[in-house]
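USER:
I would value a second opinion on how I read folds in token form. Give me a protein, with the fold worked out from its sequence. Write it directly below this note and I will take it from there.

ASSISTANT:
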Amino acid sequence: MSAPARKIASLGPSAHVDTFARDNLPPFDQWPDLILERPEFQYPEQLNIAVELTDRLVERGCGDRVALIGNGRRRTYKELTDWSNRLAHALVENYGIEPGNRVLIRSGNNPALVAAWLAATKAGAVVVNTMPMLRAGELAKIIDKAEISLALTDSRIADELVVTAKNSHFLKQVVSFDSTSNHDAELDRIALDKSVKFDAVKTSHDDVALLGFTSGTTGVPKATMHFHRDLLIIADGYAQEVLNVTPDDVFVGSPPLAFTFGLGGLAIFPLRFGATATLLENASPANMIEIIETYKATICFTAPTAYRAMLAAMDNGADLSSLRIAVSAGETLPPPVFEDWTRKTGKPILDGIGTTELLHIFITNRIGDACAGATGRPVSGYEAKIVDAHMNEVAPGTVGRLAVRGPTGCRYLADARQKSYVRDGWNLTGDAFLRDAEGRFHFAARADDMIVSAGYNIAGPEVEAALLSHPDVSECAVVGAPDTERGEIVAAYVVLKPSVIGDPLCVKRLQDHVKAVIAPYKYPRSVSFVGALPKTQTGKIQRFKLRQQS
């Protein structure tokens, strides 16, 4: 039986002196319904996520366990707690941070980023983690949207922020930290003599702790607003139920900590359960394999393209035997990758879908209940349904819009787009899905990845999966290309395996293969051979760039 979903009508007393975040939450009538009744989601009124991930672990006797591995050093929970407490003192005493101020952090995946995030959160700040690849113009949009006055940055990549600050109405201070093992930058030197004890701000469980800016946005960026309790919910829900994390687990992965998928999988999940996170600034498949072999990593978070590369490396002797779970997200997991991984490793690979708006994964396959081509079932505490344009639920087997609700949900910072993401209390993710007769959810396409050709609805990912099952294909992406007769045609961009020649004979081979594997009308009428596919830093294929070429 479904848990009761409820509208939120009030919030607890805030610890924020700077009330910007709470002042810019959407009106309550635009919030999604929330399902918070599960016993594991009952948190005290006062809750600071950073304390729960550090000081609390030391109190439980985990102080000597390794928390973080990266940039040549191992950090125990006691060291991480002391480090973040010293930094918190510096932020408050030297840089004037007050509860509720927004603090931007710019860094690759390394222990110093985690320490800075924890420190700012202990000081009661609202943190905005950003990717190293962003340029001054992109940073300026984020800073203006969130009205950020202080930025912390890896000293190696400070230049873009310094440029931004010169012309910014809001950004007043850019402070560098040293992400290497030297600890020789301004913030590190100031923190050196600070106390290892810090009285963290007693934030409310529903004070905003994190602003997650959505990836791939154009124009004005969207900032999703997440409470302290939300950051624990994703660990006490998905990570506990699906991954069954223990203190013996060692995490590895590629998603940037600047994205909520990476922050959850490579920081919050391991730290919540006293496990170990390995952090890589350059998380290439080769580097991840080295970490897996060296530290006997047990849980991996990365995209399907990386898993394909890791499978190929196994043929050359790579040892992935320590992994007990592979989590795939960012792109839907093609059935051939699912089948190859399961056959070659004997271990589960779990597809799932999450969004920045809902913070992390809310539909997933599970160990013992994983099915090729299926995304899975809702994580406990979440409900999902497939609806039409009028929010009516459609019959099983019918492709429609995915609607989700649960303990987390979309709250955009001062953004009219809130009304289109949340309807009738449900979050509309922008994905086309279907639910089968057994209750499993199957990804069809992003709503804008559906191709309508001569009246037929064709899901690009289905054609991609068919192409990937051909031995000549290394990677591929499928988009709709304008066509005067059909409206659109299926256009495939294909990366061939080494030594395969991309000639007209190869085009026909691939087209015939698709016709044999799925309904013939879905075959790609246009096939282009490319050296590489455009991707985001998280491994998502940037299909919009391919559409522009088409």
User: Anything to note?
Assistant: Residues 41 and 391 are 28 Å apart (CA to CA).
